[in-house]
Amino acid sequence: MNIAVAQSGGPTCAINASLVGVVKECFKNTDIDAVFGSINGIEGIINDNLVDLKTVIKTNDDMEHLCLTPSTVLGSCRFKLPDEDKDISLYKKINDCFIKHRIGIFIYIGGNDSMDTVLKLSAYLKRTDSKVKVIGVPKTIDNDLPCTDHTPGFGSAAKYVAATVQEIIRDSRVYSVQSVTIIEIMGRHAGWLAASTCVLRSNGETAPHLIYVPEAKFTTRKFLEDIRIAQAKYKAVIVVVSEGVETENDGYMTGVEDSFGHKYLSGIGKHLENLVRDEIGCKVRSIELNVMQRCSSHLASKTDIDEAQLIGSEGVKAALRGESGKVLVFNRVSDMPYTVTIGSVDADMVANKEKLLPEKWINAEQNNIKDSALNYFLPLIQGEVNVKMRNGIPVHFQGMN
Does some domain include residue 377? Predict the structure, then answer.
């Protein structure tokens, strides 16, 4: 029997670590002959575009190097598999590919949209009496997958965002003039990543002074009032805002949608910058962290990388046990000491669903995160990885080039 593995959705620091976990588990199992990587997610299966990973990942050093390389070494996609009754031909192409390459297990590493593929494909294979097992391994910096305590990729993104915000704090305080700095952070409907910047309090920082997430009530009038109150206490006011925070007129959203119906977001930080400049008149700037927060592996969380590799390995074990149509999840046992177990849930509990930031962690003013959230976030950003350097910069695995 052979195994196929694919990566899908947005890049992260940890998605290649999950791939390594899959590969390591396969290489040590005598029942598995070959591990194929599908190029560009499920599109690689549809187009029969597979690569034997033994020809790419040749040594243990390659595995360790790949583990600390960000983004998706196999490439990615945002392809929505149609319902069977609308286009069954793609399902037949996938099944033909599985038969041609003697694939008995398909591991799909991705977010909640990717689990839609796990759900649909596993249902089709079961209905047609195929023995191929389909397992979803989670990843997303948004941390918005239901049923799991957190997702691989989030811890490293949160660590990078917190460190970057802290450096912005240092920068903002060098001048005597009053200022406002607005930092826009990823998060369409769920504010996990923006909220995680509260961890800076554990190192004695008072900033960010305001944190706005999509789950909280937001009005521009209240926002300007919050800024003025903060200015009475701090010369340099630091504001963190999720990209998905909506103003009354929703004027910063584009009308363009991806194949899963998600609107592309742009410019809430700039929108609020202009508002502060027009209404308050102080020095103000906005900073959009953009894609840097997804792939900044030089500041990855060791906890995140280790867990990503482990859950990839457990995905293979689950399939070998006969599970299919399942998504692997983390279950938190305790905060101190930090302990998790790995389980699985049906894909329909995860696919196309979102887990929002708990209301209990948002303060009464709807403009910050309570200290009670710290015990959740802090364990996920712990530990440093040993990044391989050459000529003063990190070296990335380039075996697919």
Answer: no
**Whole-number pLDDT of residue 266:** 58
* Report field, pTM of the whole predicted structure over 0.70: yes
Domain of residue 20, CATH code:
3.40.50.450
Nearest C-alpha neighbor of 379 from the set 294, 306, 325: 306
Active-site residue, selected from the candidate residues 52, 87, 129, 142: 142
For 58-112, where are the alpha helices, taking DSSP H only?
Answer: 60-67, 89-100
- The C-alpha atoms of residue 106 and residue 217 are separated, in whole angstroms, by 42
Q: Would you state the torsion angle of the CA atoms of residues 259, 114, 399, 308, taken in this order, to the nearest 10 degrees?
A: 140
The whole-number pLDDT of residue 264 equals 45
Known catalytic residue: 142? Answer: yes
Neighbour tally for 247: CB within 10 Å: 16
User: In terms of C-beta density within 10 A (0-12 exposed, 13-18 middle, 19 or more buried), how is residue 332 classed?
Assistant: middle
> What one-character-per-residue DSSP string does 188-220 give?
SS--HHHHGGGGGGGGT----SEEE-TTS---H
Q: Which of 293, 310, 341 is the last residue of a domain?
A: 293
Question: Two tokens at 8?
Answer: 């899908």
Spatial contact of 16 and 65, defined as CB atoms under 8 Å apart: no
What pLDDT does 252 receive? 46
Q: Are 130 and 168 within one domain?
A: no
DSSP 15: H
Distance between CA atoms of residues 199 and 340, nearest Å: 20
CATH at 283: 3.40.50.460
Q: Consecutive sets of 10 residues in the chain, 401 residues long: mean pLDDT of each?
A: 96 97 95 96 98 93 94 94 94 98 98 95 97 98 98 98 98 95 96 98 98 97 98 98 85 45 68 96 96 92 98 98 98 97 98 96 98 98 95 89 58
Cβ atoms of residues 195 and 357 within 8 Å: yes
